[in-house]
Amino acid sequence: MPQTHASGQPYEDDAPEPAPPAAKAESSDALDSLLDEIDDSLQTNAEQFVRSFVQKGGQ
Amino acid sequence: MVKWGRSSNVFLPNASRLYIDVGAHPEYATAECDTLTDLIASDKAGERIVHGLVEEGERRLADAGIDGTIHLYKNNVDSAGNSYGCHENYLVRRRADFRAFASALLPFLITRQIVTGAGTITRSPAGAHYSFSPRADHMWEGLSSATTRSRPMINTRDEPHANAELYRRMHVIVGDSSMSETTTLLKVGATDLILRIMEARQPLPDLALAKEMQAIRDVAHDLTGEATVELADGRRLTAVQIQSTYLDLVRAHVGGVIEPTPEVERILDLWERGIEAVRTQDLSQVDTELDWAIKLRLIERYQARLGCALDDPRLARLELAYHDISPTRGLFHRLQRDGLAATVVEDAAIQHATTAPPATTRAALRGRFVSAAVAAGQDFTVDWVHLKLAGGSKRTVLLKDPFRNTDERVDVLLTALEDPSAPVD
After folding, report:
1. Which of A19, B113, B326, B367 is most buried, by the most CB atoms less than 10 A from its CB?
2. For the segment B92-140, what is each residue's pLDDT rounded down to a tens digit?
């Protein structure tokens, strides 16, 4: 739907009960399985992938 | 987004603001929140909203026959060294000595990165090392009213988005974007507690730093927490000592200025464990709760597996993956799914916050208005303090009190939207 902004320029700016911390048990194994899962995608063209991530400007 | 609002700058039904910032990245500003849980839910909801844009973009790529994926990162620097980050806005009472008031917060903000930093691999000609905050090297001033040019830690532009006679805005731009909900809880929660003490005009320990820009860098690049920074009075203290002093101060005010609640206790407990983790170099105390420690653990494990140096591009790729907002591809989300990253709010609360505004602030009025105007197909204009229907002059409502979530004038506008024949003017 049509929506205009009062000022033409964008601004620059931009509890319930606490949940328990994540369980620690067997977390090492879980971390290793997670790394197994993502290993291939991280290794593929990693250098080019990282170099191509450039964000101009902003704050 | 452009289709929805015919603009690259819109307020959404959840009362947040979404727009394209300088540099063509999407920027999301949560609506005004008066609780930390609302804030965390709104912040996380923003990730889901911009992920919707990613999915839409990928569909369009596919329709155009282009094989590609879009990655969106909630991080703090790119591979060319450009910095952006996460702004925090705290509404404070207006006072004549605002600059001194804001300056007094700087020693806290400069050292809080040892607990709330996003962590990053820093590359230099001398090699790579892990540091607390990717944002630290990009700060050039303590206070300033400019942001893109000078990069201050606190932006002093006087723009409260509320009754300016009563309120001032503490606009903190030295913080890292956080993936972890518990890190956000500590980052915003501890800052809020310090501000409450300052607003109650209680004395603060004098920890003014001699060289703020040097200090923020020295703290960032010393993971042991043993590096000292020089104070204006000539003393040298570590970031651990300075943060401990603030933590002790806050503890002393619990039951007085600060009402004791389970949430306050959770913030203080995490704060204490975070400082202790640095002091003892035992990250296991916080490695599911603080971004820099969660990420370091991941990087160290992957590095050991690859047997590579810290400047290996595969580790940089891992770091990017941590900040990917995709619920399926994003590494942080997978850590959370596997119980390796703690949460603060329920998943359902985050989903609710993608469409529903925070209920207890002015945001509730804005959200209802946007939803109703969209449903009615009416032209409208919205900013943080105005709601305006196209047409007569009495169709504009000014909302100067961010804590009011009901307003008869807004009810009239909403009635007009539901029934176009109802009188407004």
Report:
1. B113
2. 999 999 999 999 999 999 999 999 999 999 998 888 999 999 999 888 8
Contacting residues of B for A47, CB less than 8 Å apart? 313
- Determine which one of B21, B379, B411, B419 is catalytic: B21
Angstroms from B285 CA to nearest CA on chain A: 10
Beta bridge partners of B169: B91
pLDDT digits (tens, 9 = 90+) for B26-44: 899 999 999 999 999 999 9
Q: Are A54 and B79 in contact (CB under 8 A)?
A: yes
pLDDT at B51: 96
Per-residue b or e along B320-339, where b marks 16 or more CB atoms closer than 10 Å to that residue's CB: bbbbbbbeeebbbbbbbeeb
Q: What is the DSSP string of B5-68?
A: HTSSEEE-TTS-EEEEPTTS-EEEEPPP-SSHHHHHHHHHHHHHHHHHHHHHHHHHHHHTT---
Record the pTM: 0.91
Whole-number CA gyration radius for chain A: 22
So what's the pLDDT on residue B95? 93
Cβ of A22 and B9 within 8 Å?
Answer: no
Angle CA B193–B27–B70, to nearest 5: 125
Question: Which residue from B263, B298, B302 is facing A15, i.e. has the nearest CB?
Answer: B263
Asked if B377 reaches chain A (Cβ–Cβ under 8 Å), the answer is: yes
Tally the residues of chain A.
Answer: 59
Distance of CA B55 to the CA centre of its chain: 24
Which tokens hold the place of A1?
A: 């739907």
pLDDT beneath 50: ranges in chain B: 1-2
**B190 vs B186: CA distance, rounded Å:** 5
Locate all alpha helices (DSSP H) within B307-420, ordered by sequence: 313-323, 331-337, 347-353, 363-376, 408-418
**pLDDT the model gives residue B207:** 97
Q: Which two tokens stand for residue B173?
A: 């731009």
CB contacts, 8 Å: B168 with chain A = none
Give yes or no for a contact between B198 and B204, defined as CB atoms under 8 angstroms apart. Answer: yes
Known active-site residue B78: no
Give me the half-sphere count of Cα atoms (radius 13 Å) on the Cβ side of residue B58: 12
Q: Which of B38, B50, B83, B317 to mutate to test the interface with A (most CBs of A within 10 A)?
A: B317
B89 contacts in chain A (CB < 8 Å): 13-14
Q: How large is the ipTM?
A: 0.79
Measured in angstroms, the CA of A28 and the nearest CA of chain B are apart by: 9
